[in-house]
Amino acid sequence: MNYIGITPKGRSTIIKDQAFFTLLDGRLPNDSDSIIDLFKQMDSQIRQQIEKITSGALSNAHGDWYEWLLAITAWNFFVNHDNCHLALLLPNVNRFKVGMLYNEELSSLIEDLRQKVLKTSQVRLVTSNPDFVIINGELARQILGHREVIQNFTIDTLAAINTYYKMFIGKCNFDQIVGFTSVKTSFRPDRRLQISHEGSLMKALYTHLQTRKWIIDPAGLRYYAVATKVGTEDRKGLKTVATHSITTVSSLPQAAVDEVYEVNTLQQAQGAFAQMLGV
């Protein structure tokens, strides 16, 4: 399958899903294989097809490839464990607002907040989507029905993984969105700030819903970060307080990011999901 496309300006580009399927031959790597090394090998094969491919184009492809590897691993983990939650990929916020996963009442409260912020202060509540949403396992099994482990994958498999979230639009109660996960192939300083800001904002929205609904002693929303390599400075940089939790003396400070995982193999991914998904 040809995975090289041509842009309107006549430049060669990577068709990411076709490249992922073709270069891996529709098979997941071994559990112990380094994902960083795997991407280097895939880059080398692409460079044989496009000599002048930019590092930026390759890095952009790495992001999607990494998410697909993790999404398939999370799916298989869910299928193999009866008592765990499910992590699903989310699209860019320009295509979908994550608050729409909540039921009509809760999503209306979030939209009401957006409108009141704009009306009273002339500022916007601007949010981004985390890479994964963690859905309550009981709800996920109820909605998805029969489930099978993904052993080999196709382009259609990747398309399904990208759109499973649609099955949960308007279906989640307050406690059925368990948490979120941000995924990066690497942590740059600016990415660390983005992740902390995103985690803080998601938890602030959760607390807003808790307040509006008078929910006493909720389980809390979890927020995680994942990368192929995590250093000491990354962990320090992500140890940031969630802003809303320090605005009153009646609440204990909360972390914007609850845990950071280094995932450079599928085996490490399985270990991380064992903790994130509640096994």
UniProtKB/TrEMBL annotation:
InterPro entries per the UniProt record, alphabetical: Restrct_endonuc-II-like (IPR011335), Restrct_endonuc_II_Cfr10I (IPR012415)
Source taxon at top rank: Bacteria
Keyword annotations: Endonuclease, Hydrolase, Nuclease
GO molecular function, one term: endonuclease activity
Secretion signal, residue range per the UniProt entry: none
Tagged with keyword Hydrolase: yes
SUPFAM superfamilies for this protein: Restriction endonuclease-like
Full protein name: Cfr10I/Bse634I family restriction endonuclease
